[in-house]
Amino acid sequence: MNSGSRHVILSGCSGAGKSTLLNELAYRGFDTVTEPGRRIVIEELRGDGKALPWVDPAAFATRAIEVAVQDLRLSGDGSSWTFFDRSLVDAAVALQHATGHVASVTLAPFPRYHRRVFLTPPWPEIYLQDQERQHGMEEAVAEYDRLLRAYSDLGYDPLVLPKTTVSERASFVLSRLEEL
């Protein structure tokens, strides 16, 4: 396991504040990488829409893997913290869910992220559907449960974020990284 990696994943439940937390970390001066899935959905909505997650989950997951690999390659030398809104791991878990292809096999050729992964728990009070997030809360919770299990099974150390202000969440993340 590459516990020395400075590439840190923010994962978890859809609509639970990952992007907002990523923005706060960017505001504090850290490098950040936006969610591959949202970028793909925006692109697909402008095009033929064949790889939308609600049209073809396997095609969407495959595209998310490609984008996440590119993000990881472009993310720098790891000399400072870089925070990822979702990751290659999330995409591999989505592909496994859609096709049965084992996530650990998909991930085997790629470098690992930092061992500590921060997960946003389901938070119905702030959950919103929009044009790019069309699934409901029940599906979001099921995805969260898959990710929580998968990160542990893949040898990562998932830590669930508290339901608090974005500033407190960012401080929580940074303090938990410094503990290591």
**Percent of residues in helical segments?**
40-55%
The H-and-E topology, N to C, reads as EHEHHEHHEHEH
Q: What class would the helix/strand composition place it in? A: alpha/beta
Q: Provide the CATH topology.
A: Rossmann fold
**Beta strand %:** 5-15%
End-to-end separation in angstroms reads 14 Å
The CATH class, by name, is: Alpha Beta
Kindly state the mean pLDDT as a whole number? 89
Query: What is the assigned CATH homologous superfamily?
Result: P-loop containing nucleotide triphosphate hydrolases
InterPro entries: NadR/Ttd14_AAA_dom, P-loop_NTPase
Organism: Sphingomonas suaedae
Protein name: AAA family ATPase
Chain-wise SSE layout:
Layout: E1 7-12, H1 18-27, E2 31-33, H2 36-46, H3 57-74, E3 82-85, H4 88-99, H5 103-107, E4 116-120, H6 137-153, E5 157-160, H7 166-179
Parallel strand pairs: 1-3, 1-4, 2-3, 4-5
Helix pairs in contact: 1-7, 3-4, 4-6
Report on this model:
- The protein has 180 residues and is α/β, with parallel strands linked by helices.
- The chain has one domain (7-179): P-loop containing nucleotide triphosphate hydrolases (Rossmann fold).
- It is 48% helix and 12% strand.
- The chain is built from seven helices and five strands.
- It has helices at residues 18-27, 36-46, 57-74, 88-99, 103-107, 137-153, 166-179, and strands at 7-12, 31-33, 82-85, 116-120, 157-160.
- The protein has a five-stranded parallel beta sheet with strand order 2-3-1-4-5, with helices on both faces.
- Helix 4 (88-99) packs across helix 6.
- The protein is globular and about 40 Å long.
- The two termini are 14 Å apart.
- The mean pLDDT is 89.
- Residues 8-169 form the NadR/Ttd14 AAA domain.
- This is AAA family ATPase.
- It comes from Sphingomonas suaedae.
